[in-house]
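Hey team,

Filing this mostly as a record. A colleague (T.K.) asked me to run one chain through the structure pipeline before their review meeting, and I want the input and output archived in the tracker in case anyone asks later how it was produced. No errors, nothing strange. Just documentation.

Input sequence:
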Amino acid sequence: MPPALLLALAAALLPAPALSDTSPPAAAQALPAPPPPPPQTIPNFPLLRVVPKGEARAIAFYASLNPDCSVIGPVVVRTLTPPARGQLTVEAAESFPRYGPGSPLAACNGRKVPGTRLTYEPEAGFEGVDTFRLLVINADGSGYESDVKVSVR
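Output structure:
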């Protein structure tokens, strides 16, 4: 094969060199942004209550207390999903907390303290189970969601 033909064949098969490649080397190119962190997951504590048909009842009382039973601050209760067959009332009130016997705050159970009361009132004539979801934010910044089931009888 003549040398000129070999050169023409080699030129056709080999890639041509870039004349003006201005892109940065692969190592210097920007990496894509990392994905955002997942949303913070907070605990969920279910709450089960029974309310007489046709009556409003306090179904929960929330208080943020120090070990000496003094109040740290207010507890915020927000409705995330409202009840389908009743109404909720959230109001400041005084009541007796109900801490478990092993809790360092169990001594506060015997005295009335300021806090937040949650009252549920079923719609007229309703009998059955109603559900809703709450967000509870304590005065110390901790919080949780609560899936609530109220059996109206």
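Quick notes for T.K.: The mean pLDDT is 88. The first strand starts at residue 47 and ends at 51.
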